[in-house]
Amino acid sequence: xxAAIDGVFPATLQELVKKSKVLVVGAGGIGCExxxxxxxxxxxxxxxxxLDTIDLSNLNRQFLFHREHVGKSKxxxxxxxxxxFNPDAKITAYHDSVTSTDYGVNFFKKFDLVLSALDNxxxxxxxxxxxxxxxxxxxxxxxxxxxxxVELIKRGLTQCYECTPKDKQRSFPGCTIRNTPSEPxxxxxxxxxxxxxxxxxxxxDEDISPDAADPDAKEKDGDxxxxxxxxxxxxxxxxxxxxxxxxxxxxNGNIVRINTRQWARDCNYDAGKLFNxxxxxxxxxLLRMSNLWKTRKAPVPVQWxxxxxxxxxxxxxxVAKQHHKVWSIEECAQVFANSLKxxxxxxxxxxxxxxxxxxxxxxxxxxxxxxxxxxxxxxxDIERKSRFEIKxxxxxxxxxxxxxxxITAGISVMRSFKVLExxxxxxxxxxxxxxxxxxxxxxxxxxxxxxxxxxxxxxASDPAITLKIDTKRLRIKELRDEVLVKTLNMxxxxxxxxxxxxxxxxxxxxxxxxxxxxxxxxLNIVDGVILKCDDFFQNYELSIIISHFDAERxxxxxxxxxxxxxxxxxxxxxKKDTVEAKEDDQKTATKRSANGEEDSKDDxxxxxxxxxxxxxxxxxxxxxxxxxxxxxxxxxxxxxxxxLSVQSPPKSGAKRKPCEVIEDEDIxxxxxxxxxxxxxxxxCKRSRLDESSSNPVEVISID
Length: 703
Ligand SMILES: Nc1ncnc2c1ncn2[C@@H]1O[C@H](COP(=O)(O)OP(=O)(O)OP(=O)(O)O)[C@@H](O)[C@H]1O
Ligand SMILES: [Zn+2]
Fold this sequence. Notes:
Elements: H1 11-19, E1 21-25, H2 29-40, E2 45-50, H3 74-83, E3 90-95, H4 105-109, E4 113-116, H5 121-134, E5 138-144, E6 147-153, E7 169-172, H6 174-178, H7 184-198, H8 229-236, H9 241-252, H10 260-266, H11 271-288, H12 308-311, H13 316-321, H14 329-349, H15 363-379, H16 387-394, E8 397-399, H17 402-420, E9 430-432, E10 443-445, E11 464-469, H18 476-487, E12 494-497, E13 503-505, E14 530-535, E15 540-548, E16 558-561, H19 570-594, E17 624-627, E18 637-640, E19 659-664, E20 667-672, H20 682-685
Parallel strand pairs: 1-2, 1-4, 2-3, 4-5, 11-15
Antiparallel strand pairs: 5-6, 6-9, 7-17, 8-17, 9-10, 11-16, 12-13, 12-14, 14-15, 16-18, 19-20
The structure holds adenosine-5'-triphosphate and zinc ion.
Residues 26-29, 31, 49-52, 55, 57-58, 62, 74, 97-99, 118-120, 123, 173-174, 400, 620-623 line the site of adenosine-5'-triphosphate.
């Protein structure tokens, strides 16, 4: 089925479509739709990049993928499926991360247009910077539940992706939820899915049982894709006893994908049986997928009987009411039992196919999720949370909706026509909403095309930020990893001190290693010092003005402030801090006296900014999107970390390995190379280009 655009588009547009070269970044929910639309609209020169492999949970909304594709490269399968619509199209697929150094400014310059369909801010920031540098128009799209958004980003004409601070968003792949949780939110999402499996409207991609098809559980081949089972076996030689057992169990049907809801009903909702199934047997099964635990801490199953002695004494209803207390594991088990009893009672009274809808304000539903999330956290050695905290996190989980993705992708491609025709005034951002606006429109365009923010620390001509930082407590390594890389999204920056020109951080490995462990103040990086940062790979330069402050014990060690003029004078700031600290102390004292006895009065807002840490590390993929609340955050603060805990960024197995390019007729495939191949921007440094981009703002006036 080739595209039939003759008679649909004017001849000039048809020509533009035919001869333009476009890049699609991301082959997920929106990306698949975008690719399909492009091919069906007559685009014939398309490249698509995605770092991920196909997960079972993608199939309900990523229609270029089918069951037999699970575990395969998204970009390659998307290419194959799209070619079936138009075999004459030339589609190049890259199974790789767009942030890899292979996709620098030169790569982006090849395109007339880039359409991004990503799910995480780090990659979006990167594509934004690359398109600005290469001066290629970018159509940026995203969805969150029923909300969708498409906007044009064009150097000098519009605001860029980083011109305005964004809400914090986080999202997670299905196998993280089912197999390898590492944060409380993963366990909370899992617990909500468990609720739905037992009592709610259960969806296939909300399965809570171990995912045996997890690509991470298998050995990887040279392509970074999981090997087939027989290949795996050949190379591994001896299989462990547990692995054999796991396979036999599956083959013998011992691990049967029985309907969890029916099974629980058949067990008469026996708390012990259900508890042991979810928190012992399933975990024991996960342990057998030994590849998962080579680089992670293995979970420890828990047994219902062992939790009964202490926890069963006292009035357990009161435990569930202690919303601000972190329940012990025994208390969680009891809350589990009580809430299960209440929920199953209500559920059994429902008629026909009716189900319960999870609601954070429904006491047993919330108790159930809080208890299950915490038991799972305990098993995976993850910090447990109070019911109050869990409620706020669980209330913000937004599922991905296929229709919103399709609408959004449709708008993206419609916008691409306007871009090709350079009808910029018709490229205003469009928002898809669940409810119509006053004019009864579900798709609402922006009133104007907002121009670049002159203070943007990315697209302004001479970008600068002020960094409020405790120079006496923060080390150079942390400045690089936490501030420059994680917060400001640089990849491998060089940093010099403006006044002396001395190199503080070098992108060359080992060159400034001796500085890494030193405090900023030890190297004379104190209040008023200006640092010049240069990220060669992104062709991005930024001045950082250091503004020292003495952080309180639990306070963030740094904050990025977009506009220095909005910083409060120091003495005023200090005064405020002291008052806040006092207030906090009083509140903590009050809380402490109430804790454990009568801490159940309300679910009101938390007491201070300090007690509401802001996380900056983002996950890459999503089954669910979580918007974090942060009402307290001042407008000028772009990102602030919690008290600094230095972690290496989350690794997703072979997904982010460096690559080599193999040319093959009209397809260029990117294959993962061996692990020990050196990666990093040093090799790009030599090929740095586009000197003109040091002054990237080119003003184009529009009516
Ligand atoms: N750095 C990156 N380079 C290339 N592709 C990326 C990068 N970061 C994210 N992506 C891809 O962007 C796509 C976003 O699609 P989407 O939001 O539908 O998420 P998804 O991962 O497909 O869904 P799910 O999380 O449910 O599996 C994903 O396929 C993801 O792999
Ligand atoms: Zn900008």
